[in-house]
Batch of 3 targets.
Target 1
Amino acid sequence: MSRPPALSTTSFAILSLLAVSPFSTYELARQMDRSLGRFWPRAQSKLYEEPKKLVAHGLAVGEAGRTGRRPRTVYAITPAGRAALAGWLAEPGAGPQLEFEGLVKVAFAENGSRADALDTLAAVRAWAVERNADNLAIARAYRTGEGDYPGRAAQSVLAGAFLTDYYAMVARWAEWATTQVEGWPEQPADARLDPAVLDEVARRADWA
Amino acid sequence: MSRPPALSTTSFAILSLLAVSPFSTYELARQMDRSLGRFWPRAQSKLYEEPKKLVAHGLAVGEAGRTGRRPRTVYAITPAGRAALAGWLAEPGAGPQLEFEGLVKVAFAENGSRADALDTLAAVRAWAVERNADNLAIARAYRTGEGDYPGRAAQSVLAGAFLTDYYAMVARWAEWATTQVEGWPEQPADARLDPAVLDEVARRADWA
DNA sequence: TTCTTCATGTAATTAGTTACATGATTGA
DNA sequence: TCAATCATGTAACTAATTACATGAAGAA
């Protein structure tokens, strides 16, 4: 019996959700939306595909049902799935990987106008403020006992705190960078760096 | 004349490098390694592919040469390329997108042991410390006038500062999370959350 | 009864990575 | 002259996204 495609981080992320509770694909998508998707974002269609892989490996079972005439599948983790998950958790896992288009634009701002760079930074800050508001709303829900899966709060709060710190860091950086760019001439290519700024940044890096 | 595949963020990221100076593919790979790759990571082979797309669009030209008997191509941006780049910079661009396997493991730590979670957090902290050291070394090189492309220092430092703050944030979070997990019982699933922690995190989020 | 949103899935396409192959250069 | 590293590229593969199609349920 030939093993189907190997399991990826995405597979285990989905399996982790199923370890919380059985879910239909749509419910998985909602969980992805509120939490997991912030640090392991995947398109909807993936969520239809991965559980099938888990089933093929015996790590989950799919129970077929119906909503009216439409087919609908609810997936649940198996004991083998829990074992596989435990094995996966025993490996440390990769560090955060960033993909930040806005920063690419800032880093090469000399090819555009000063106003472009300021707009980009404003958008970055707005992004962080908005994400933070969502995140804060979730934290407040937990505080009033309305959070999802309160039995998992000790774990959830670790991820929530990461996001909190992350959004705050992004916003503060955008504010700082804005003050820098405001000091530039109209042509960003003519901007010269005050060496004192390098010292300041080096100091910020001196925590290890 | 049918247009070849549309330009992606990756295309413009490469084009931005070519705006700094003409580069061979290998030199592009080195630039990717030292800076751009930290916030727009791509595999080597992409760097052989994308410039061809840029040439097909008239945004770059490739000059064929040789190293001994081996062919070698050096790419340079064209005036049309500079114009396209300026157009791209006028759009704000996407916010940072995170993909963080270690955090997935922490967020679902109840399926493994407490020691697993602590190991994962230690690996995350080590990751941040190492990246920070690289980044700091680059900052110091600029300070002593040995940085690459000193004319671009005003732009480079903005990206450098982002990474500095980012690595510091990751390390500090890992340290904090470690103290939390140290307070857990042997079975992470039994860990209960002190509501005061929620308040603390909410306060950290209250900057907007 | 019609519009909107919730819900369920598949198919086509593309972006990106891994693996491979090999020449050139340098230093032991 | 051999090994290690620098350098240049292609081919095969896969992970992931976008686009599409449509049924069910609830609100106006």
Target 2
Amino acid sequence: MTRTQASFPAVYELVRMVPAGQVASYGMIASLLPGVTPRMVGYAMAGVPVGSDIPWQRIINSGGRISPRPGSDRQHERLTAEGISFSASGRIKWAEARWQGPDDGWLDVRGMEMMDYLDIRAGWPR
DNA sequence: CTTCTGACGAAAT
DNA sequence: CATTTCGCCAGAA
């Protein structure tokens, strides 16, 4: 059977669940979608249509930084406007801004627990 | 049909 | 801390 199961839509659905004022990493999103790699999440974000209501700005890299690219300034602006604060070196604190994951209903249907991601590597993401 | 090209992350070196 | 390696999507040319 083919395994190209349009993963972008699933990524978008999850990204829409991240509330303003909170952020998630590409890896976090990927860990919630079997078969989807962090890189694929990046590809999906790059494909978000201009003017879309998908909160693409709330997805940053595991280092707590906005991935460098032309246009990353706009992402910084948007997050700052949402209340996210960055250190002088351009880093956010996961402990205070990290999205806690989708609701239990979403996880139950898939037989998952937020622990699946957060416990695998204690204290991660940094 | 083929080739190119991006918003990533972990481990090893 | 800096590099390298690999995983293997989707749309445009």
Target 3
Amino acid sequence: MDDDRPPPAPRIHGTIARKLGIEIVGGIRRPGDILDGEIEASEELGISRTAYREAIRILAAKGLVESRPKAGTRITSRNRWNLLDPDILAWTFEGEPDPQFIVDLFELREVIEPAAAAFAAQRRSDQDLAEMTDALKGMEAFGLADERGRAADQRFHRAILAAAGNEPLTALASTVGAAVSWTTKFKQRRRNLPRDPLPDHRRVHEAIAAKDADGARRTMTDLLRLALTDMELPERE
Amino acid sequence: MDDDRPPPAPRIHGTIARKLGIEIVGGIRRPGDILDGEIEASEELGISRTAYREAIRILAAKGLVESRPKAGTRITSRNRWNLLDPDILAWTFEGEPDPQFIVDLFELREVIEPAAAAFAAQRRSDQDLAEMTDALKGMEAFGLADERGRAADQRFHRAILAAAGNEPLTALASTVGAAVSWTTKFKQRRRNLPRDPLPDHRRVHEAIAAKDADGARRTMTDLLRLALTDMELPERE
DNA sequence: TGTCTCCAATAACTCAGACATAATTAGCCT
DNA sequence: AGGCTAATTATGTCTGAGTTATTGGAGACA
């Protein structure tokens, strides 16, 4: 069910799409800007027009640009961007993301994950629970300072989303869940483990194990709120 | 701030991407399937390899396929698809979408929109409120049987999301909001206006106008729950 | 018999150059 | 001044050749 083959080797079109994508979400290139013509741009980059065009198609598919004959390829306004697209999210965190954006992302998590935890408490299978238990063990074994520990953290949250039994909701997991990982790395950068998040995770786990929907919602809300305050980001006025 | 230029004329690569995308999300082609080679496929479709390849790049950007030299282009497993991508959502509703999927979508709305309504009640500007008022008037004027009325309905929900002041949350609006429109059309198909949804909308509007966050959350929840029961879709067991 | 290394086949990838098409712009006419 | 028309131009499409990354199997070896 899960195709876990090694990712394809990086190709030119993907590389260029990534490069341009980072420049766009990073604000180097701004909405309304018109990119250089295909011939000029491809020569500038030392690649063929074909490869450059395919890169543009990728960006257009994600809503970052729109191109039309004669007018050229222009960067669309931000509200047209698919901010939840995994690639776009990853590109956003390649640069220095706007602190407000991170706050917004956490706010989104505070909306989604408690609800997902409640659903998970109601619908989880024993296998789902076993996956959560295993992930929790991984977090305990390595801690969040370790890369493997962070991976286990992500697995824990993904397992909850999966147990919620709602496909579109789970699709958010790959994006928001990825953001979790980036923000955690972000956090480590400025301070060493401000507080032990493991007890919070255990409480969520217990509630889901007991099929206590309200408890799961509440404990998950607590977990996220504390995680956010630990980030020491600007509060919303 | 909003680039509302006429959409570019349909091009071959977009058309083919759409066609293949519909076949994939519609289940005609299944995960794990390998598409025909570029030469064969492009000849079959009567187009050039270039156009076909660009179509594949679009699908790959949305996570539907993955291609590698020698191995070919294969359809990825569903959990890799960006189900929230506006195009994918639209393609899904081109065919007969799985009823369970629609239920999941409504469930997602019931998670997101009440929270958004609560934020909107706290953060709305007078201009935001004016937009909602205007949209509500549009709904009253035309009713949901009319295309313009449905457009006003969408505007109402979008205005709330926008007033919530959370960009990623708003990004969901273009997808979930679009789904609203499709499901409404879906509903009209089987029965003529089961119940007047306007009073529900007015109550949400009043709560947001009064900056009553809890009230906004509650009334929005009611609105969505009733809208779902009106769909007469299979309940989750 | 099973495992490993190497090699050849293959399909996607990249390139180059030409022609077609659709927006835009300027210019013309009314 | 306004609206139609045609030239301009950047993207779109096509063809055909050459390159590169996987793969699957042949052959060597334990």
